[in-house]
Design a protein that fits this description.
Chains A, B: It comes from Streptosporangium becharense. Chains A, B: It holds the Pfam family Glyco_hydro127C. Chains A, B: InterPro entries: 6-hairpin_glycosidase_sf, Beta-AFase-like, Beta-AFase-like_GH127_C, Beta-AFase-like_GH127_cat, Beta-AFase-like_GH127_middle. The structure is a homodimer. Chain A has about 625 residues and is of the alpha+beta class. Chain A has three domains: about 400 residues, Glycosyltransferase (Alpha/alpha barrel); about 90 residues, Immunoglobulin-like, CATH 2.60.40; about 110 residues, no CATH class. Helices cover about 35% and strands about 20% of the residues of chain A. At the A-B interface, helix 11, strand 12, strand 13 and strand 18 of A face helix 11, strand 12, strand 13 and strand 18 of B.
Chain lengths: ~625, ~625
Amino acid sequence: MADFADRVRGPLVPSTGVQRPLGVNDVEIEGGPLGRWQRINREASITLGLERMEQSGVLPNLRLAAGEGTGPFQGYRFQDSDLYKQLEAVAWEHCRLPDERYPAFVAESAGLLARAQRPDGYLNSHYQVVKPDKIFAELEYSHEMYCAGHLFQAAVAAARADCGGQELLAVARRFADHLVEVFLTGGDDGIDGHAEVETALVELYRLTGERSYLELAAKLIDNRGKGLIADSGMGPLYAQDHLPVREADTAVGHAVRQLYLEAGIVDVYLETGDESLLECSVRRWEDMVATKTSITGGHGSRHDGEAFGERYELPPDRAYNESCAAIASIHWNWRLLLATGHGRYADLIERTLYNAFAASTSADGTRFFYVNPLQRRADLIEDAYLGRRREWFACACCPPNIMRLVSSLGHYVATVDDEGLSVHQYAPGRIRAGEITLAVETDYPWDGRVLFTVESAPDTEWTLRLRVPAWSTRTAPPAGPDGYTAVRRVWRPGDTFALDLDMSPRLVHPHRRIDALRGCAAVERGPLVYCFEQADQQAALEDLALVPGTELRVVERDDLPGVGRTVLIEADGLLLPSSPPDGLPYSGAPTDLPTGTGVTVTAVPYHQWDNRDGGVMRVWTPLA
Amino acid sequence: MADFADRVRGPLVPSTGVQRPLGVNDVEIEGGPLGRWQRINREASITLGLERMEQSGVLPNLRLAAGEGTGPFQGYRFQDSDLYKQLEAVAWEHCRLPDERYPAFVAESAGLLARAQRPDGYLNSHYQVVKPDKIFAELEYSHEMYCAGHLFQAAVAAARADCGGQELLAVARRFADHLVEVFLTGGDDGIDGHAEVETALVELYRLTGERSYLELAAKLIDNRGKGLIADSGMGPLYAQDHLPVREADTAVGHAVRQLYLEAGIVDVYLETGDESLLECSVRRWEDMVATKTSITGGHGSRHDGEAFGERYELPPDRAYNESCAAIASIHWNWRLLLATGHGRYADLIERTLYNAFAASTSADGTRFFYVNPLQRRADLIEDAYLGRRREWFACACCPPNIMRLVSSLGHYVATVDDEGLSVHQYAPGRIRAGEITLAVETDYPWDGRVLFTVESAPDTEWTLRLRVPAWSTRTAPPAGPDGYTAVRRVWRPGDTFALDLDMSPRLVHPHRRIDALRGCAAVERGPLVYCFEQADQQAALEDLALVPGTELRVVERDDLPGVGRTVLIEADGLLLPSSPPDGLPYSGAPTDLPTGTGVTVTAVPYHQWDNRDGGVMRVWTPLA
């Protein structure tokens, strides 16, 4: 049953693993939030992104490198990567729903890249145009291999998606061969200060069979923690270069780097069977989940260095939770899910997808968050820049990264193994895996019933495994210890199976070690984390508190202005007297919240926030 | 009685003001913590600092500028300022207690500076050596006028202290005249991205009578918020260039910059009488104190940008509270105290001095904090660099800044006005103000009794005013509404007066709007904020909580190993069960702290922390 894996049209196609993926085109998503995100991603975001490739200097920079343009280099040294992620988004979008404009854009871009590429295969417009004497001489911050990695992923996508990718793949292979010559067989030692190329090299190996790509990825991972690159000025933890990967116990430094590195580590494990790699990655995962993960699935507690912090350092207001980190975390968890089959990784994918990730994009798909905090204060003076979604960024790593994930969402829905089919994420539509076709009807995540109808199936027994999220405490049928409910039988066309997840709203409390959340609670329902926004309150949100143990009431809204369809949750709150401090805000009087006026407070799904007034928001709210 | 002000040997000598300062040499401090700090500052810190002038490249850079050296420029573009602050420290130290090595160092440095100075008066080793074509062309981050300001302050100090300063003053005046030619009469508009020169120019005007220096300071202040300089990449708030100073309501951006700017604003008010300047500065002071000030008096909630944050954003763990910001805050408050006579400014000076500032230096005077947080976690992985005091820093702005303040502490103890003498800070020793000599006997801040003995006095009536800190709720004699207790009479030699401050330990609670401190309390006694350090506990500090309303017991220690003399405070605590999360640290169970084992917890003055095991520390501790 796992024989499709060889021709899967998706971002990750490992040759081993407990579970094996389906292609982007094997899963049709036909509605629900995921379907909506795919629609606005195609209609609004990708359209905007393609325009920005010209406006932000990405394509002009490459023309300079190709000797076809004039003017100064624009933007950052990693500007090329914006194009690569945009190309990958376009390729998966074409795989999902073909449109001739997509292969045309890929082919045109590939032509430009081929003309910009040096004869030896090197390709990076910044270094070719601005710093030709510094090529591979500033690995600590050059992002040259980081950009190469995104090129490889774009080429893999275009090839698998049959999206005008022949020339792009040739460009990628020439650069990959050059990296092999320099850093594998050529004897140069080093790493890129920003991990990413490792996972990309493994995928390029999977596509092409060229084993030196895998060997280079393995070497780059083994090279970490040896001090082979200079300090970028941010310290060795920033680039996870403080310890060899097998010795590091906890996620540190720049969150996106750590998370992409982990994806590469699991990728190398999947192809080489080196258990020590899986073991160290799982060890860090368990530590990170228990001590360094926001309730939204976001990662990175610090603006300074866009970094993880110390254990239990999880501030709601200054949580960085970069959109790219959510994407990288989904990549890593997906590899761990395929490698081990454990439902906990799919659980974290779901939490991240519906919260930290989904919040990154406005309801209309035209504005993006780079940083995804869990609280926005009243004043928004210092945070005027990052406090609201923006159309684009000088450092535009996030928007095209978001687009490539949304276009490829179908890839993350279900897997196969020798026993049958496992469904990890629930969305209405259709799943095809070899002889099996499964229709999915659901109003998830607004409703907890997911109805599966077998449309075609082999005549033999196979197992349908359905993930039961850890939050669903009363599920029918219940889950086994692996987090899945499983039915093994011969399935006939027309057979149905219903899963009922527990959609009761939940009041959630933080572990006592999280100092920044003491005395607060949050609201969840299904996979959605909620927040309180000023727009929905009857009084100033900063003066509202939750009544401990409050009843939580579900309010369905078909079209909340600015937000669209949603489910609100009402709770019992107290309106506290507002008494700004006169002098220092410290006194001998205890801060037990005084009794206030009873008032209803209303929560909205976190991923739908900042589509209205730009006012105060908080996920974690004080308990009266 | 105010006629001394004209010959005062101190850093700040305004020509107007409700209160007028005394010189560094008018107050002898003979013991107590302040006396101890002055002793180790002289014996250890200044000795270390003078060595570092050579080692860290400061003097070699100036030799390069003078055409006398070889090798590369070392360090930052503001490296010269380290020397200027060191010179100022040496000058005040000489004023306090003469030593021929000090004027010799000043004269030698002045000679080098004179040789490095361009004929037109310009002086900055970085720009002269590294970027001669960019002089005054990168004001947003050049620090050229910032360095000039520290030169002016050093020259003022050396002149007033009679510490070999004739040539230094000539160098300073040539540079100041050049700044006047370029930025006042020459028509160039601009500001320095890092405020500092404003307050320094006013002081150079006060010393020399050259009114163009004052006019330039006023112009630079009026130039803020007009967008005259480029964005340094940190946004206009970082440099307080987002709004004209009279329009800005709240302290923003880089804390040290904001606080030095405020000092300059009050300085210009003091010399010009422009009430709109005092008014806007007081408005921001009130807002800052109520919403952006740590209990230690520290300022700057963010590592990112070393910045103030939003209102009520006061995290204990990630508080930046730069040592230089504590110094700048003391400068600003001192000016406000002189300008208005309000005791609240002296209160904040005391809080800052004994806590945020004093914590910056190790018990032996050889190691310094750049960042002064209110919590240190168990792991100290990400924070290995900034988590403990260090001998020096690549950016060494803090250590010589600390030294110049400690050497000049006597200046901040007392003031005079037409009515008599006001004492703002209490330390054993002697205060001389014209015909008045007052001996001070006290074991403050360990004990609350301060005994004043008049040693000489005029035959006429005058008022002795003594500050009663706001924390002293039961004081004998009690304070008036201005925060001072005052006695007006004819004083005879031998007359004594005793002030008894309330030294009961206090459990202090944060305002409910400070989310990061919810459910916690802190301990204070007298002017000292306390913290819990792992070294003093019977169990892991992360598992300890305070019993609400706990009795606080004072324990005197003559020589706590590593710390020296101190007063510890014991409280009733609970040892909570340690239960690290398995999976995400969020659950349906409330986080009310469970009942634990009763245990005594022990607090040490915050300013004495990090002199022992480098373990966990917290000022704000959870209430059980």
